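REQUEST ID: PR-0412
SUBMITTED BY: lab tech R.K.
PRIORITY: routine
TASK: structure prediction, single protein chain
INPUT:
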Amino acid sequence: MLNLQDPEFIENPYPALAELRKAGQPIWHEGMGIFLAATHKDANAVLRTRALGRIFKPKEPQDEWDTFNWLHADSILDSEPPKHTRLRSLVMKAFNPKKIESLRPDVERLTQQLLDSAEAKLKDQGSFDLIADFAEPLPVKVIASMLGFPDSDEHLLRPWSQAIVKMYEVSPTQQDKLDAKQASAEFADYVHGLMQERKRNPGTDLISDLAMVEEDGERLNAHELIATCVLLLNAGHEASVNGFGNGMVATLKNPAQDALLKSKPDELAATAVDEFLRFDAPLHLFERTATEDTEIGGVKIAQGQKIAALLGSAGRDESVFDRADELDLTRDPNPHIGFGAGIHFCIGAPLARMEMTTSLPALVKRFPNLELANEPERRQTFVLRGYESVAVTA
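STATUS: complete
OUTPUT:
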């Protein structure tokens, strides 16, 4: 049976995922106690079937995991209707298309600042890190600016986020668990302090907006507001960082596609970003629990059983994508499900697209001779797939 922690599988999971798809229906994984939906059709159905919910199971002992537990239980991602409907409606009042579009000048400015720093590092050291120096700080800075976090505290955010999201992997270590508990408590305390200050002195930031939004007399309580802010940072940059890094490495290793992107970066930005997310997905596994007996792909999922949509496998489904194992930056249409589907479709998708379609052509135009300096260092995780470091020269 598939071993999701095997280093060879983590390095390149796609051949094994192709074997899973051959079954043509969800497969039960005894070790994980979960069904795996590997085809595009089945993974999409998992995301859209209302009888399959995001049911958060509190970690035990609950007194040790208290903050981590409510950060998830009170978030949009880990709740179902009617709570999910109320939370999403309130959050979307503040995190709306107009708000996102208003961030475009900030994204453009921050992109150029990071490129200036990368260029200086390139002249000084002969290379820079595409992840640490560009792909990673941009979405963190954008979310931090949007939430009104002081610039001096930005360095705290990514470590907190990375510690929390390691708990989404198949078998987190004891140290991972300790780090997640500590990060949850520190992150929640930090946001709570900002929330209290903004309630006293409202500004134009998203925390101020979230504290004020109201619908039919309903408002976000303190836990819900804090959980929303933490979710926006965690989910709001993990996909962008990993999707951008995975896609750029794949492109730099493909001379024909690399040359194509560099020949017309503005024209290809939109289709290239979607292909980045399809070809080497930043999120590979998204779990659901049956709230009643249901069926996916002809397989009965009993109430209480779990099933996971394998998003990276869905993106390589040969029945949906022509030449599925080939990178094609002009691919259109591209019905990948990298941002999810159904009621849990990622609320941050428009922001992530805007960030990536802005930063990608800017990077390529600034460094038309960009190439890998050595073999990139991959993170040893499957669920959230990305690179630790990608050294590049230009």
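NOTES: The longest helix spans residues 222-252.
REVIEWED BY: pending
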